[in-house]
Every structure is written in structure tokens, then in C-alpha cells.
Amino acid sequence: MKKLFVGNIPHTTTEAELRTLFEPHGAIQQVSIVTERDTGRSRGFAFVEMTDSGEAEKAIAALNGTELGGRALNINEARPKTDKGGFRGGRPGGGGRSGGGGGGRDDYQGHARQPREPRW
């Protein structure tokens, strides 16, 4: 089984449309369009899982750069998600105190936080 990344899809594209686009090139295991957590709107990319690696390669060759809804599709083999050190884990930069870079708001190293004066 091979997972393909399908980028630059129109935000109105449905999973059924992607399935119809890929089916002539081989058997499809699953189609999933990635959506925004808050709004449920498409983020403009999807993943298509094909059962056969050879068919997946042929689908990439045949469909990469083709237009769907006026947009040129970007199709390639999906790579594993990597943690780039964003806000995952609660701290910007993804690291602890030893990673350099200034501390955040909660960098009081065990001391109680001082109350703020009102702003008026």
C-alpha cells in the first residue's frame, strides 16, 4: 500500500471526486481530505491510499500537474509527518530550557509570578 499526497486541490473538492480521478489508475484503499479543525473547511490538500505501489507510481506520473477545478494538482508520495518544533508540546521551539533561545512567559524557574499592575 502506498500513500499519496495530493496538494493544491480546490477547497470545494469532495472525496468522491478524488476517488473518481484516481480510480482509472488503480485500486483505492482510502481518500481523506484534510480540513481545518475549527471551520471544517478544506485546507487544500488530501491523501489518497492506493493498494498497489506500482499503480500509485503510475498515478503520480499521469496526474501530477493536471488541472482540477482550474488548479494544477501537486501529487507525490506522502512523507511521514515530522515535528518541526512548533507549538506542539506546549512550548514554542519544541524544546526545554537547555535548547537556547529566551524563555517564554512561564520561565520563572520555580518562583511565584508577580502580579501585574492594572493598565489605565
What does this structure look like?
Helix content is 16%, strand content 26%. Strand 4 (67-68) and strand 5 form a beta hairpin. With 120 residues, the chain is an alpha+beta fold. The protein has helices spanning 15-22, 53-63, and strands at 2-7, 28-35, 42-50, 67-68, 71-72, 74-77. It has a domain at 2-77: RRM (RNA recognition motif) domain (Alpha-Beta Plaits). The chain has a 4-stranded antiparallel sheet.
State the CATH class of the domain at 2-77: Alpha Beta
Got a strand count?
A: 6
Percent of sequence in beta strands: 25-35%
Largest sheet: 4 strands, antiparallel
Corresponding CATH architecture of the domain at 2-77: 2-Layer Sandwich
Mean pLDDT: 84
Q: What would CATH call the homologous superfamily of the domain at 2-77?
A: RRM (RNA recognition motif) domain
Task: State the secondary-structure class.
Answer: alpha+beta
Q: Order the strands across the largest sheet as they lie in space.
A: 2-3-1-6
C-alpha Rg, in Å? 22 Å
The helix/strand series, from N terminus to C terminus, equals EHEEHEEE
Helix content range of the residues, please? Answer: 10-25%
CATH topological fold name of the domain at 2-77: Alpha-Beta Plaits
Globally, the shape reads elongated
Tally of helical runs = 2
Give the low-pLDDT segments. none
**What is the CA-CA span between the terminal residues?**
62 Å
